[in-house]
Every structure is written in structure tokens, then in C-alpha cells.
Amino acid sequence: MTYRLDMSMMFALHDALRRELERITRVAARTGDDPRRILAAAAGWELFKKFLRVHHTSEDDALWPAMRGAVTPDGLALLDAMEDEHAAIDPLLEAVDAALTDRDHGAERLAGLVDALATGLAGHLKHEETEGLALIDATLGPEQWSHFGQTHRDRIGDDLTTYLPWLWDGKEPRVVAAVLDGLPPAIREAYRDEWRPAYDRLVLY
To answer: What are the structural domain ranges in the chain?
Structure first.
């Protein structure tokens, strides 16, 4: 589908979240070591939670409210569904965290909770891409879309130095280079010389 608004960062973030879900699911399924110990100490799990919450709270605060006065009843039902799907994710994140610290029963609960998280979030991302983005594109003007992007960037804040390498982890170098070419020279240099090397040193999982 061709969009009027630039959805490239939205798709990049969705791809990153799916990538992390795959990694987290592999950790939870391990049998040779305690996956709770690995995940509890994993920088990747913390980054996943942080950037997922930034994304969802930005949508809840700066995206859906801006659309509510301009959509049809069917559109309102879709926005309600988006918010309900968001609301179901945080309890699953909290349940996984609780299982990581549960010495008695956490190990037996972890894989099922991670599977529920992966199923719920993957379903939401697909729903947003198949229906939500088209509604956004048909409803918001460039200024409103830009406001959402700025809200998202403001909430990333100082974590931008980790967020960009995390966002582009696993992407083909030519894809990353094409995006970097559109950024200010100082950002490009910092990414290549500092941010990406620091991210590569993290023990993600």
C-alpha cells in the first residue's frame, strides 16, 4: 500500500519489535540453562520493554486522541481496539518480569507467558499495519503526524544513542546507510563512531 504520510519509521519499529520477540522466545525455550537468569540479566529484554512502552504511550497520548473527532463510528471502533490491545500488553510484560523473580514456579510459567506476549503483540502489530495505518493516513494531516513523531522522539530522549542502533539491528547495511544519509552529519558520525560500537558491546541475551 502507498501512504500519503511517511510510515517508514513505524514499519522499522514494528520490525524491531518482531525481531526482539523472536529472540526473547528463543531464550525462554532454552533447556540447557535457566532462561530466567539469562532474560533477567539481558539488556535486550530491558530495551525491548522500554522502547515498546515509549511507542505505545506515544500512540495513546498523541495519535489516537487526535483522530477521535475525525473518524466514522467504524474508525472509533478500530481506535478502541488499538487501545484495548495496548492495554493487554503491559500486564504480560509485568507477568514475565514476575516469573523471572519467582524462584518456585517462574521457570514453569515463563515459556507460556512469553508465548502469550509474542502472540498478543504480533497480533496487534499486524492489526495496526493492516487497518490502523490506513486510518491514520486517511485522517491525520502532516502537522499532526509530525507532532506524534516529535512526541515519540521526546520520550526516547537521551536513549537515542541506543535506540537507533537497536532499531536498525539486523538491517542490511545499505538500508541503514540510506537512512543515515538523510540525517545531519553530526548524527551520522556519532552513530558510526560511538553509538553503534557501544551497542555492539552490550550483552543483549
So the answer is: 8-156
* Contact by Cβ (8 Å): 151, 64: no
Residue 139, H or E segment: helix 133-139
For the domain made up of 8-156, the CATH class stated in words is mainly alpha
Interval 50-95: pLDDT, tens:
999 999 999 999 999 999 999 999 999 999 999 999 999 999 999 9
The DSSP 8-state label assigned to residue 182 in this structure reads T
pTM, entire model:
0.95
Long-range contacts of 54-63 (CB under 8 A, 24+ apart): 54/152, 54/155, 54/156, 55/13, 55/17, 55/152, 56/86, 56/89, 57/155, 58/148, 58/151, 58/152, 58/155, 59/86, 59/148, 60/86, 61/151, 62/147, 62/148, 62/151, 62/152, 63/136, 63/140, 63/148
Hey, is 81 helix, strand or coil? helix
Widest CA span of the chain, in angstroms? Answer: 54
